[in-house]
Specification:
Strand order of the largest sheet: 16-17-18-13-19-20-22-21
CATH topology of the largest domain: Rossmann fold
Number of domains: 3
Structural class: alpha/beta
Helix content: 25-40%
Distance between the termini: 65 Å
CATH class of the largest domain: Alpha Beta
Oligomer: single chain
CATH superfamily of the largest domain: P-loop containing nucleotide triphosphate hydrolases
Number of helices: 20
Shape: globular
CATH architecture of the largest domain: 3-Layer(aba) Sandwich
Strand content: 25-35%
Number of strands: 22
């Protein structure tokens, strides 16, 4: 080993991996070759099914039982001692691989809530990694506290004894990074480490990974489908398509002059602030379909003696007929609570939520009962965030799409089947798919099925709760195009909920920005994105990673994570606990929450 260490920590040569399925084997990776240089970040890019996660599994020795390495080598060179190991030749369950896993190569999982056990404290789970490599007792606790502090978790002495559900999404991901780093491995594989996070938390985690890489002299293999993340963090990029490496090189070179049509399609599909596909302004003389009038909703604290939390605080806005109204903000901002109030899944403590009924009048949703409530729920339908969790795996697509018609007593079985077939055509799927089950479809296809189900009762309003956040970028673009077409053809009214302003800009006519249960800014979409006034809105926009290595995140606008704390907003905007604030008109139809 030279004084500067090995040139490459990981070298993958001609790697082919396949999985056994009914009727034969399916190739997941075919002849893949690339290397991870010491101290560098290499991004592995591709959509679902490209082979990214299969590669992470095989490097970590975590292939499922039906997977096998058909050919190739995976050489890991430990920069601490220069020892070279061909991981492909090791028994994944053997002691040699167990020593490498966690201590020399570690994995940051995509979804920390699933990766952490809910039954054990965060500290005990991190300490398990240390115990597996011979560190225990008081030294283990001290090491765990130190790594929690290193990844930016406040009060690590307290956090070590918390359970995963007691941490926010951003802190859980930091804890997951801490678990991966606690044994100080020289190589870290990060598998979609920010996909489940809000854009502001994502930006903080990206900055954290960048800092840790330099401080700990890590090599990082970043697995993602988000080209914005790649542009912010990676030194080089490798593009996978159906298990094959189709393009590779330095990030700046590939982004500027990448030739493969698959990479160009991925790059062009990324929604951007200030893009050309902005939604038009809504007509101002249309009648309102949804009206929030000073709505407040509080939830009791989980712990005894805790104060009630206001999920919605004096929220007022109107959604007009035929428009797409965007509701944006981080997790916990109140977006989904507002959606649940529209559906009458909860009742406000103060104020009213009114929705236009079939007779043409506005009715207070909280007062609906019996037949009127059933008619309301047919008129207002919901499209869920996660297409995998939203569909019953035991129901065929036909049963899923016709179930609303059965519940509301609409049509004969033959008429219901005919309508289901037409709905499948409307969302871009073949009627023959009605006989299949959800597991046979991709994420984008499942979301189309969810949209077909929502349209089954011919609603006037669709509540779209993060309908594309779980999808790959090219599939996301297809679903957004579908939603735009259906809105035009059916004169639908959309409430479009998202934390990604770039997506909302391509969909919404007007936008309300929410933070900690308050609306902080509301304006026509074009005006909001051209001239945002509230510091929280600016932070959300600054946190969106651009798919351009030359345009780095402006982390100063994120205020070190304080942008979502009303008490920390700049002078003129800062609000104390319980302070209502006031709205100021800064331009036509453009209102901003200010200090009283």
């Amino acid at each position: 080993m030279t004084a500067t260490g090995p040139a490459h920590v990981l070298e993958i040569s001609n790697l082919s991996v396949s999985f056994g399925v009914e009727g034969g084997r399916v190739n997941a990776l075919s002849g893949v070759s690339f290397a991870v240089p010491q101290g560098k970040t290499i991004a592995l890019v591709g959509e679902s099914g490209s082979g990214k996660s299969a590669l992470a599994q095989v490097v970590m020795g975590l292939l499922p039982r039906n997977g096998r390495i058909d050919s190739g080598a995976i050489r890991f060179t430990d920069p601490r001692n220069g020892h070279v190991t061909n991981l492909a030749a090791l028994d994944p369950k053997g002691p040699a691989f167990r020593r490498i896993r966690g201590q020399s190569i570690s994995l940051v999982f995509q979804e920390p809530m699933s990766a952490f056990s809910p039954l054990h404290t965060v500290g005990s789970q991190i300490a398990d990694t240390l115990a597996a490599h011979g560190v225990a007792g008081s030294l283990s606790r001290a090491t765990t506290c130190a790594i929690l502090q290193l990844v930016g978790i406040p009060d690590p002495e307290r956090a070590i004894d918390l359970y995963p559900f007691e941490l926010s999404g951003g802190l859980r991901q930091r804890a997951m990074i801490a678990a991966a780093l606690v044994a100080r491995p020289p190589l870290v594989i990060a598998d979609e480490p920010t996909t489940a996070l809000d854009v502001t938390i994502q930006a903080q985690v990206l900055e954290l990974l960048s800092q840790l890489r330099h401080e700990l002299k890590l090599s990082l293999l970043l697995i993602t489908h988000d080209l914005g993340v790649v542009a912010q963090l990676a030194d080089a990029v490798c593009v996978l398509y159906r298990g094959r490496l189709v393009e590779a090189g330095p990030v700046s070179e590939v982004f500027a002059r990448g030739r493969h049509p698959y990479f160009r399609a991925l790059h062009d599909a990324v929604p951007r602030i200030g893009g050309t596909a902005q939604a038009p302004a809504a007509a101002r003389d249309l009648r309102p379909m949804i009206v929030f009038d000073k709505v407040t909703k509080r939830f009791d604290a989980r712990r005894a003696g805790g104060e009630a939390t206001a999920a919605l605080s004096d929220v007022s806005f109107a959604v007009h007929e035929g428009e797409c109204f965007g509701l944006v903000g981080e997790s916990g901002s109140g977006k989904s609570t507002a959606a649940r109030a529209i559906m009458r899944a909860l009742v406000p403590d103060e104020g009213s939520v009114q929705v236009r009924d079939t007779a043409g009048g506005l009715c207070d949703v909280a007062h609906l009962k019996g037949a009127a409530l059933k008619a309301h729920r047919a008129r207002v339908q919901y499209v869920f965030q996660d297409p995998y969790a939203a569909l019953n795996p035991r129901l065929s697509v036909l049963e899923t799409v016709t179930e609303p018609m059965v519940i509301h007593g609409i049509g004969t079985p033959a008429e219901q089947r005919a309508r289901a077939a037409q709905l499948m055509r409307d969302v871009g799927l073949e009627p023959s798919a009605l006989e299949r089950y959800p597991h046979a479809f991709s994420g984008g296809q499942r979301q189309r099925i969810g949209i077909a189900r929502a349209l089954a009762l011919d609603p006037a309003i669709l509540v779209l709760d993060e309908p594309t956040s779980a999808l790959d970028v090219s599939v996301q673009a297809q679903v957004l195009d579908l939603l735009n077409r259906l809105k035009r053809e059916r004169n639908l009214t959309y409430l479009f909920i998202s934390h990604n302003l770039a997506v909302v800009e391509n969909m919404a006519n007007r936008v309300a920005v929410m933070c900690r249960g308050r609306v902080v800014e509301i304006a026509p979409a074009a005006a909001l994105f051209r001239d945002p006034h509230h510091p929280y809105t600016r932070a959300l926009m600054a946190a969106i990673p651009e798919p351009d290595p030359a345009r780095r995140l402006n982390l100063a606008l994120l205020m070190d994570g304080r942008a979502s704390d009303p008490a920390q907003w700049p002078k003129g905007f800062a609000l104390r606990a319980g302070e209502a604030g006031r709205f100021a008109r800064v331009a036509e139809d453009h209102d901003v929450l200010m200090a009283a």
